[in-house]
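Protein modeling request. Please complete all fields; requests missing the sequence field cannot be processed.
Requester role: graduate student
Desired output: 3D structure, token encoding
Chains: 1
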Amino acid sequence: MAVVLGTAPLSMMSLVGVVAGILTLGTGAFLAWRRPARKKVQDPVDVSKVFLFHGTDLVDANPRAEELLTLAKSGGSDWARMMSVLTHHFPNLADRLGDLDDRGSVGLRSRDGNEQLIASVIGDRIRITLTGTEDDERRILLEPLVFRSTLRELETLRYATDALPFPVWRQTPEGALVWANIAYRQAVGANGSGTGADAWPLPALFDADTLRDIANRPAAPRRVPPLRDPADGYPSMYECTVTQTEDDLLYSAVGIDATVEAENQLRAFMQTLTNTFSHLTIGLAIFDRQRRLAMFNPALTDLTALPVDFLTARPTLYSVLDRLRDRRMIPEPRDYGSWRRQIADLEAAALDGTYSETWSLPNNRTYRVTGRPHHGGAVAFIIEDISDEIALTRRFRSELELGQAVIDAIEDAIVVFLPSGDLSMVNSAYQKLWATDVGDTVDTPTVTEMSRLWMAKVASPVWGEIRDFVLHGRDRAAWEDTVILGGGGSLECRVAPLAGGSTLVSLRGVETAPPARLREA
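Delivered output (521 residues):
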């Protein structure tokens, strides 16, 4: 059997070969259709960033370089914006680029070693190229949502730091400034440095040695002035603190001019009080809420004989009282236990404002000690030497007792009235005559009350005349009269004015009949 294809006859073997070839091609095509095609290997993404500057102006940049500049602070020249971004990764960038014109080309490696910067001079232009190093083989791929969230968080943090009213900046341990907020840049601009707030690198606002000392003792804030006198509206004194970050130091400086001014005013006020208290003869000691001596005047040392160095060491209240006890400047108690209880009672009474005692000392001195509560839980003690006052009082009392003894020795009944009519003085002969004890009455009797007593026992118009003379007498001349008593006796009355408007009444009994007493009449 023969098969004719076209015009040429084919044998059976030839036909089988043709069919086999067709099947082979079909199978290959089918397998090729079922197997996915191998992806073409792409070249690595170019992540380099290239800047081309003419002076401080950016004349050209690739897209990744322009994207990097969006992280820079707004304002300032293009060169300053780039420097503000790259300084964090290349802390000594400003110094290395300073001699670029002489060297022609400069190469730098970033702090983490993952990027390399090459700066070269091309004619009148400068080319800055940032590329990854051979060690930086890792690439971080972010989902779009994560990337946008990161950008929003970065924007929030930037707004927050720029809204702070006090300077915050970040610098390397070597002192290179890598970041600063708006308040820092504005303070630099107002500091008279001649550098704009948007320039980079920014000059130092504070002394480097002082900042290094603060970094060595981060737990203790330090008060530091700026390097130059600031303009109006900016503080002249700051309090700096530091926080250690992963690689750098984060500083913050808060203006404390108001605090310093308040402290100066308080110090001036304390000096005024001290000068005022220094002229007082009364000892003053103020103890704070911890019962430590906070203020005293020179009179305290004169009265207590306590040394000045002891008082300036701010001793406690108990220490001061113990020292006074040792010097016998306070009344000696019977035992030490009662002494401690007395001190506790003294402190409690002083807080209530009720403590007031008179200390009679062995050296014939007498002190009046008063405790008063003070502001903030403090206690003020006032020590006053009243020895002269006590001596005068004792002398006056002695004279009164002597005068009373003198009139008691007189046989005539004597009574003295004040200008108001109140009784001032009587002698024992008067009380014996009228059989009364004036000292037993609570209220001081008046001439009206006593004239009624006289009238009740002996009726006589003389008593009314005496009352009128004491209360309304205009003619202050002495006069005498006689009061007739029942039983044949009489009283000789003598009325005499005294100094200050007082009146003396003297009564002398005269008996013309057998003895008879006034109480019998």
